[in-house]
Specification:
single chain; 419 residues; alpha/beta; Elongation Factor Tu (Ef-tu), domain 3; 6-stranded antiparallel β-sheet; 6-stranded parallel β-sheet; 8 helices
Length: 419
């Protein structure tokens, strides 16, 4: 046998072994996938989908919660990151009553009285902040990131202290993790970690056997929140896997080795790390991250009902708009409506490139109230003195007669608002 033939047969043998190994690995993953599907069917006959549909508005995990604004006192205040930009507030009821349970992923709406920097006069603003602890405790916890120029976040960081009382609506929101055995993948960008931490803590306390992956994307170590706690949880719970992903790892001077992936959370990383499972994906972070990962997951074969999102950005919503909503949001060309802001004294033609009246008001420099930006909290409810609006989607919050929710409406006719 010549040397060339010997080399050929050696290469052929190696290649054949690699093919057989790859086929064997795929077969093992497929068998495990089929086994999990059968387990889920046995747990709930006739239903393979393990995460039940969430009703349009979920409040306090099936409890009535409370009606209107409730006074909660700040019992503890502490920072969660190296940069000091994320601060947690633990809240207890002033009336000494019990705080109702909530679903992990829900938020609180706060009513804040903030002094105006120029005049010193106080004005009321409403903001929504995700609950960042598990239900069933004596307190609620929110974790707030300081935003440059942010009226509410800077007020909370700089002026709200332990002992101060805040007006709060009951927990609400649709971006929630239901109990079950289906494996889940949680992906957060920046401050989008807050509702996902609530999901993680709830799962590990109630169903530690559930497979949970958490991919956390930040620029560097200074932006990470809850890092030490998450590392400890991943060491103590075999079913929970935590990966810190640094997009600017080369410039990271605080923790060059204390992260798991150098780069962004992308579909390549997910395909490398995740096995073949019927995962449900929960994405929370900047709009750009959501808009990149959602189609990438769909291209990987993940079904739309297995992808749950909440944007923490300029247009925060809990779900991708339905085809009907997208159709309404991109109407055929027609005459522009005149929008008048009565108190501000501004009168402008509607910009068809803008999606909502809230965004339009902000473009005009009008200080419009807002909270969830998805029609759930009612913070942006504004009086309509003339004209009609149309809703881009059915809101969870029912506005009073003669008002509209700026965050999910646009003008149908010429319009006058009490702003």
């Amino acid at each position: 046998m010549t040397v060339a033939k010997l080399v050929f047969w050696i290469a052929f043998g190696i290649g054949l072994q690699l093919v057989l190994l790859a086929g064997w690995a795929f077969w093992r993953h497929w068998l495990r996938y089929q086994e999990l599907q059968q387990r889920l069917e046995r747990l709930d006959p006739g239903r393979v989908e393990p995460v039940p549909a969430v009703p349009p508005l979920v409040v306090a995990s099936g409890n009535v919660g409370w009606s209107g604004w409730r006074s909660l006192r700040v019992a503890r205040k502490h920072l969660e990151d190296h940069a000091g930009s994320i601060c947690s507030f633990e809240l207890l009821p002033v009336d000494g009553g019990v705080l109702p349970a909530f679903l992990p992923g829900q938020f609180l709406t706060l009513h804040l009285s903030v002094p105006d920097a120029a005049t010193g006069e106080k004005r009321v603003v409403s903001r929504c902040y995700s609950l960042s602890d598990r239900p069933g405790l004596r307190h609620y916890r929110i974790s707030v990131k300081r935003v440059p120029g942010g009226v509410a976040s800077n007020h909370l960081h700089d002026h709200v202290q332990v002992g101060d009382v805040l007006s709060v609506l009951a927990p609400a929101g649709r971006f929630v993790l239901e109990p079950g055995l289906t494996p889940v993948v949680l992906i957060a960008g920046g401050i989008g970690i807050t509702p996902l931490v609530s999901m993680i803590l709830t799962q590990l306390a109630q169903e530690p056997q559930r497979e949970v992956w958490f991919f956390y994307g930040v620029r560097d170590a200074s932006e990470r929140a809850f890092h030490g706690q998450l590392r400890e949880l991943s060491h103590n719970h075999p079913g929970f896997r935590y990966l810190a992903c640094h997009s600017q790892s080369a410039a990271d001077t605080q923790a060059r080795e204390d992260f798991d992936h150098a780069g962004r959370v992308d579909i390549t990383l997910l395909r490398m790390r995740l096995a073949l499972r019927p995962y449900h994906f929960f994405l929370c972070g900047p709009t750009a991250m959501i808009d990149t990962l959602r189609p990438a997951l769909a291209g990987w074969g993940v079904l739309p009902e297995q992808i749950h999102t909440e944007n923490f950005g300029p247009s925060m919503g809990s779900k991708e708009p339905s085809p009907e909503v997208r159709k309404v949001a991109t109407p055929p060309k027609r005459a522009k409506q005149m929008v008048t802001f009565r108190i501000s004294g501004k009168k402008m033609l509607w910009d068809t490139n803008v999606v909502t009246l809230l965004e339009f008001a902000e473009q005009q420099g009008i200080d419009a109230p807002f909270g969830c930006r998805s029609g759930a909290c009612g913070a942006c409810q504004t009086g309509v003195t003339q004209g009609e609006v149309e809703y881009l989607e059915n809101p969870d919050f029912t506005p009073d007669p003669g008002t509209c929710l700026l965050c999910v409406t646009r003008p149908r006719t010429d319009l006058t608002l009490t702003l």
